[in-house]
Amino acid sequence: MNVKSLTSQELCRLSGAAAELYRITNRGELMQKLSLLANDVVDAYHAVAWDIDFASMAQTTSYASAESAAIVQKSWPIYTHFCERYPQFGQAITNHCIKGKVYRATELLPPSFVERIGFMDEYARPNGCEFQVGYFFKQHGSRVAFVNCNRNGRNFTARDVAMMEFLAPHFQAAYENANAFEAKNEALERARAVRDSLPVESLWLDDNLNVQEATPGVAPLIREFFHQPFSTQRLPEKMLKWLRASASLTRPITPLIVRGADALLRMRFYPQRLAGLGLLTLTRCVTTPTLEQLEPLGLTRRESEILLWVSQAKTNDEIGIILGISGLTVKKHVENISAKLGVNSRVALATIPLSDL
After folding, report:
1. Which of 204, 224, 276, 292 sees the fewest Cβ atoms within 10 Å?
2. According to CATH, what is the number of the domain 198-286?
């Protein structure tokens, strides 16, 4: 019997149940829901969902009921005894051939083998799992996850298997969906930590260039330099065009600089800084330099004052009036400054205070 043999009423019921799975974004909560749903669909004695990482031995186990949990936990030492003594048990649940498939217990280990070693009498029948049917998730690496339904006395029917096979793609998709949500949330937590440690305003962008996280100072900068409100769903078109200029967004691109009335905004983008997230930093720079910014040049305070006014395109006479000295004195200072800085034109001298902004 296959999925096509199920009645329209059965398909409607299963479809409704499957739709609910996609609302769950927490893997632990999803596994609990899967065990309950599988238990109900095939009328099992008890069902359990396992999610194990064999690299770290971290595991999440979800049961259809408290009674199921008590049954499994009470008998766990017996099960581990068989696993330690017979490696076939561990090999069975890491078998790549059954990943992505609905399986019966008889497909994992030969019935004659489990009967001969006493597993059926000592563990399976006393714990209500003489017969088993379940779904084994497609996984990569050391992770193993499956939903297992158990009962005694009567085997699972072909119709039970058909209903599990109908649900299997939904189990898989919902599981991957929950994994993606958890990975994204973990990345966002790391992003917040990085964001809070940065000395500049920053945004985290997803693969669609939508804003996932932003520091409070971003909105005022967007209003100042782009003259529009800040939207987490749509960045200014000039920024988007710049970001899209690098098709793959897998390498740093040339900074974008936007000039305002008395300042400029420098933006740098770091693609895939975290999984699925790119980092965009925004730095506001005042275009009128200060005396403090000129200190590394080694000029006197008076020379620094004159250089600042030169950078503002003031003439010697205008600077003399501002500072209360003669134009000839200003001219002499300009000559000394040029000699100290190794430039031979007023235009080159005027650009020096702006060179690092």
Report:
1. 292
2. 3.30.450.20
